Amino acid sequence: MTQTADQQRLEHRDFGRDVLHVIDGEAVPSADGRTFESVDPHTGRVWARVAEGGAEDVRRAVAAARRAFDEGPWPRMSADERGKLMHALADAVHDRREEIAQAETRDMGKPITESRTFDLPRVERNLRFFADWLRMSEAEVFPATKHLTYSRYEPKGVVTAISPWNFPLMLGSWKIAPALAFGNTAILKPAEQSPVTATMLGELAAEVLPPGVLNVVQGFGPDAAGEYLVASPDVDLVTFTGESTTGKAIMANAAPTLKGLSLELGGKSPNIVFADADLDLAVAGTLKGIFKNQGEVCLAGSRLLLERPIYDEFMERLIAGAKALPIGDPLDPATQIGPMVTAEHRDRVVGFLESGTADGAVRLGGGVPSDPALADGFYVEPTIIEGLPADHRCVRDEIFGPALVVSPFDGEAEALERANDTPYGLAAMVWTTNLSRAHRVAASVRAGLVWVNCFFVRDLRTPFGGAKLSGVGREGGVHSRDFFTEAKTVTVELDGM
Ligand code: NAD
Question: What is the pTM of this model?
Fold first, then answer.
């Protein structure tokens, strides 16, 4: 059968070349030659071989970033010059977007349609937004009779950026873009489960930016590249996205050198639907809220709270909608639910589902799909479970898969009590047509982000981050500037001493 060019591109083939570190403008293997493998979660087969960073690779990358910061042109350029180069990097990503989107999907199982329509456009937007933000930004002047005082926002130095596997390049660039725009140099360490696209970005940066400005070190976290990059005394700042337990380890490891830290961590976000909600909107938003990226989303609305009068109707419509989601090969543009990132993660998610099945009522899914075409991949069925006690591990812990737990509530007070009964505080969704209630609930829920009658809408000017175990600090717009720069106050005597 003759295939179209597009179909030929969407095959599960090997990456075709080694995935290296990018240090000081060069793609390089590990100093000791060590490598690890990245597995395609649809086929279960190795598809890429990746350099495994150790202490010497970290030392070289930090030294290159340090040199580029202390002696190179990058921090000394005008905002216009830096902005232009960051747009050039965004242009390079744009030109290669299809290749990068496919690599992202092959590496971690994200549906290709999401890679194409969400992740890659956001990578570009992250780069362009901070390039422009920098050019437009202002600083304060504090006039007084005898003194003139003003602020300067100076780059901090060398930034370590550690990213997770669920939105690999989108979140990598969310850290790199402001770090570089504000004049820092950086080392990006992507997650070991999704390494490929970081090297692709690093290679593009090596063509466009001065050497050492953006370095990429591949490898693992504990007692490996991640840990060394946090501990290094030559690194000034650490921006991390990942699990809350990893965040605690990073905080402890950064303490001896007293580094600035931004931690974007896990979540178990409530999705509250009031009886007065627009149900079409709420059902569609709930489906997206838990099944986007097969539930591997920190912001996922993974605890559905339904006001009792609409419980049965809502569940019926929700289950019908979930059943209709195409699950399968993530390279198929029709797919909406891809495999879990690794076999280990699939087993972890299934472990949660087994305990949920034992203690609650499974309304949909509950295990791995029976379709033999998916047998080699790490798939989990879209799952909806009701009737679990509030202290059940499926209700309290982050499952990070396509698994929704549901409970009814009676009235606003109970909704809020249940919504806030969690150690996390990343996001919340509220569905209601009552304007006053929308604002009341938004004000009372403990979370960094609240979406009213929508989900996943992001304006990059706004603060992003979580409360409680979901994080420390905020990034986005002026908050990114505050994190990635050293604010300095300059006071000038106007009238003689
Ligand atoms: P993870 O914490 O296991 O790993 C994240 C990164 O940290 C990887 O690059 C890993 O190699 C590195 N790492 C691990 N241990 C380390 C250590 N001791 N020192 C330095 N680096 C170390 O997280 P994950 O499994 O890749 O991602 C899923 C988690 O990320 C979920 O909890 C999810 O909620 C969270 N997440 C949060 C946000 C947010 O914005 N708040 C966004 C996406 C994902």
Answer: 0.96
